[in-house]
Design brief:
alpha+beta; four-stranded mixed β-sheet; 4 helices; about 25% helix
Length: about 130
């Protein structure tokens, strides 16, 4: 995973929200592998904002569940954070067997929103279709 990686074994790594995410996912899903990535700096927020994260969760709790149900388990564990400071969360949820057969992690999606300081197409400017 790209971005600052906060591995499960690194107890004190990351800010308060990263530590909370790690603790809640560990308690709820008993993962065999957990990675928490803070993508906030890539999204134009102030330093230390902790608003955008990616998680890779490998858990036996996902066995027999389709991807949507796996994501729901992750979101349920982080309900309070998603209702508050956590603005965006990329979830990769795999079973231990899936992780063992393919430990590759897809790259994080690009930030398409830009910075609040950048002028976006359609924000007070007439679109002409020209580059």
């Amino acid at each position: 995973m790209r971005g600052p990686l906060l591995a499960a074994a690194g107890g004190s790594m990351g800010g308060p929200l990263a530590r909370t995410i790690r603790a809640k996912l560990t308690a709820a899903l008993q993962p065999t592998h957990l990675e928490v990535r803070d993508d906030s700096p890539r999204h134009g927020g102030p330093p230390g904002a902790e608003t955008h994260f990616g998680v890779l969760v490998v858990s036996g709790r996902f066995s027999g569940l389709p991807p949507l149900q796996r994501h729901r388990l992750v979101h349920e564990a982080l309900r309070a954070e998603l209702a508050g400071p956590l603005h965006a969360l990329q979830v990769i949820a795999r079973t231990p067997e899936q992780w063992e057969s393919d430990p590759q992690v897809p790259p994080a999606p690009p930030c398409l929103g830009g910075s609040k300081r950048e002028r976006r197409r359609g924000d007070g400017e007439e679109e002409t279709g020209q580059q």
